[in-house]
Amino acid sequence: MVDPALASRLQFALTTIVHIIFPVMSMGLAPFLVYFTWKSIRSLDPLWERQRRFWTRIFAISFVVGTVTGLVLEFEFGTNFAAFSTFAGELFGGPLAAEGMMAFFLEATFLGVFVFGREKVGDALYMVSAVAVGLGTWLSAVWILIANSWMQTPRGYELARQNGQPVVTLVDPVAAYFNPRFPWMFVHMQSAAVLSVALFMAGVAAYFVYRSDRSRDGDEPDSSGDDGASEGAAGTDDVRFWRTTLKIALVVLLLTAPFQVVHGDSYARHVAETQPQKFAAMEAQYETEAPAALHLIAIPTDPSAFTDPRAENLWTVDIPAMASVLASGGDPTYEVTGLDEFGESPPVAIVFWSFRAMVLLGFWFIGLAAWAAYRWWRGDLFADRRLHLALMGSAPLGFVAVETGWIVTEVGRQPWVVQGLLKTEEGVSPGLTGTEATLTLVGFALVYTGLLVGYGYVVRRLVLAGPPEIESTADSSGSGQNPSQTDSTTTAEAIRDD
Amino acid sequence: MTEPAETATVALSSPIDLTTLWVVIVFAFLGTFLYLDGFDFGAGALFATRTDEAERERILAAIGPFWDGNEVWLVVFGGSLFAAFPPLYATLFSRHYLLLFGVLGALICRGLAPEFYEQRDDETWKRWWGRSFVVGSIATPLLLGVFVGNWVLGTTVTETPVTVLVGLAVVALTVVTGGAFVALKTDGPLAADARTWALRALVAYLLLIVAVLFVLFVRTHVRDALIEALPLALVAVSIAAGGGCALALRRERDLLAFLAAGGLTYALVALVGALLYPTLDPATGLTAADAAISPLALQLLTLSAALLMPLVLTYFAVLYSTFSGSVEAEGY
């Protein structure tokens, strides 16, 4: 049997790593859905209604899986980390309750209207429901990140005793809930979610553009978007659908990818100031130095230490003084605090390599965006097959970057669960047995593997099924004198905006 | 440090006793979950009694728009218990570890099933997701009932004969609610059968509750709590709501039956709260005042609930009025 503390940590890691995929999908899709809904109401072009319906299906399944996996996390604070919940509940529980009341209710009730109610409500209420769902997903992130950021930079509390046990008690709600970390986390997370979904959409669209290109003669000089219209078949509507998706996703990618790296750079400086131990782990900086070099690579000199994430004798490839520059925002002589000043270290290698993977991906996304922008500018966005392959391959990478980022955030804080106040192993439920914890850990490993396979399978099916055909049901939805489908397609050709 | 004593005094001497208010709120969340998601669970159980695909689709369509919102009441029940009474949340949830993971597993089966069921048309796929739906719909209220039974009785093991009876009673109750709801939303033989099942479940529920109360009566400490005015009144409300529900079902007044099932549900949850209070955890003797957070945090929580819950009720009003009609046979 696994030690209950270790099993609880592994289980929480597993259940969070799986869960985060689904909120990222719904938070990232939300602004796109609001946009598609707005366009589908304002424009007679059926393209937008098809976009809305196609992406709503993926949103709906992601939301459901996110709900059931999120509930698991909420329960795990009580079941596996009872000592943490008792200790930190007064500050940590409030945001969770607020998330349910302020965000989750809004999202879940209006999702019913949004998914099932297009024919039942007028345009105005339908638009409201789209905004409400989107707002709900983002407000959820506000409260979850308020709770999490408090664990990174705890403020606004006092240590007290309740029933003979140490607890934190709330003294300054503003300091606690708008603690220094929160705005950094929120901006970084939301931008990451939108970026991840833009990459996913671009990858899906690139796949269909690539395929349609190949199914024709594959060597078309002019593929600027107007060529499809002359063919007049259902397939050309699909080509236009995916080209629009690709363009929208690329615009968003072009905006978010550079922003994410620039913002990430400032965020890292904030971490260096407020959680120097985590920054040192991110940079594998064992000793305090000024100037401190940036390790591009750090590998244990002794091969037998490869499995030890805390191995200290490292062979490194350095950029001199660069860690000082990054930590201070330009000062090459800045002193970077080393891990040796903090006693217990987190598993440095995990933090160090996750951070590098995330940063590398961040730069790759900028490169990809620049490549696509260049092709677009040159007018052969739909002809560069290597770009399409690169976009397809990058479709899941935003999610990978999010996972590595969270690993940096959460593993980098170890051994603390609440920075400087409570260690993770002290937070585990005292009465929990190894048998119970192992049983549920194995159970989750099995169930969540199945869950991921099932989710991937369904999303793949939804994607491959392609955009839904629009029957004439849209007429009843209040767009007034909506003509029949063939007519509206003609109208659509006339007002097409690209 | 003498913090705890001070905390308790302030909480009790404030003009409105916020600690008691939060006990009421937490149980109101639990009750609303049991009522609203209860009809989802009951509909899931009725799903097992239908073999006709069109009827099954109709059951799914009847609950489709509501499930997501209904489930959130469980999230806020957990969240508010955690926020207002952290040590209670911690001790209760860690003590009934396997039971709660059973609930989570059942909810995963239940939650994913309708969404996955629709994805493919082949028989095997539909059969397995249909089973997942039914099993999840029955296991969730069963295990949740056992959990609440354990909580009230201060049981520290996973299950006892009495708490299993409580679990079965909760399952029966969800079938009453779900039957009335399906009858309300559909017509023809499906609605007629839903009423029959609701009636049977109602009888089963009342018998099970009588059995549970009889066993409890033997235990002196619970007997004393039972003979107080509030528990007795709640038992009376249950009997009245049960009678009303039966009459309404027989006369095909489905909305009335559905509302009466709500009366039964809230009476049951209120009874649980009344039997516990002011102790919130009989197993450890933890009282509401001991478990509550400090006055400042509790005031903040109360303020946010006071601001947000009227909005939440508005959302539900919009949702339920949007889908107020009965569902047509074509499914969703």
Written account of the structure:
The complex is a heterodimer of chains A (498) and B (332). Chain A has 498 residues and is mainly alpha-helical. Chain A contains 14 helices and six strands. Chain A has helices at 4-42, 46-79, 82-116, 123-152, 173-177, 181-215, 234-274, 276-282, 322-328, 348-378, 385-394, 397-411, 434-465, 485-495, and strands at 157-162, 165-170, 294-300, 314-319, 416-418, 422-423. In chain A, helix 1 (4-42) packs antiparallel against helix 2 (46-79), helix 7 (234-274) packs across helix 10 (348-378) and helix 10 runs antiparallel to helix 12. Chain B is mainly α and 332 residues long. Chain B has 14 helices and two strands. In chain B, strand 1 and strand 2 form a beta hairpin. In chain B, helix 4 packs across helix 5 (86-95) and helix 11 packs antiparallel against helix 12 (254-276). The longest helix of chain B is centred in the middle third of the chain and has 31 residues, at 123-153. Chain B is globular. The chains are: A mainly alpha (498), B mainly alpha (332). Chains A and B meet through helix 2, helix 3, strand 1, strand 2 and helix 13 of A and helix 1, helix 4, helix 5, helix 6 and helix 14 of B.
Task: List the main descriptive attributes of the protein structure presented here.
heterodimer; A: 498 residues; mainly alpha; two-stranded antiparallel sheet; 6% strand; globular; disordered C terminus; B: 332 residues; 2 strands; disordered N terminus
The secondary-structure class of chain A comes to mainly alpha
**Helix-strand pattern of chain B:** HHHHHHHHHHHHEEHH
Report Rg of chain B: 20 Å
- Largest sheet: spatial strand order of chain B: 1-2
**How big a fraction of the residues of chain B is strand?**
under 5%
Distance linking N and C termini of chain A: 62 Å
Major sheet size, sense and barrel closure of chain A: 2 strands, antiparallel
Global structural class of chain B: mainly alpha
Shape of chain B: globular
Which blocks of ≥5 consecutive residues of chain B have pLDDT under 50? 1-13
Mean pLDDT of chain B: 88
The arrangement of helices and strands of chain A along the chain is: HHHHEEHHHHEEHHHHEEHH
User: Which ranges of chain A are low-confidence, i.e. pLDDT below 50, for 5 or more consecutive residues?
Assistant: 217-233, 472-498
Distance between the termini of chain B: 61 Å
Average pLDDT of chain A, to the nearest integer?
88
Give the helix tally of chain B.
Answer: 14
Helix residue percentage of chain B: over 70%
Query: How are the strands of the largest sheet of chain A arranged?
Result: 1-2
Question: Largest sheet of chain B, if any?
Answer: 2 strands, antiparallel
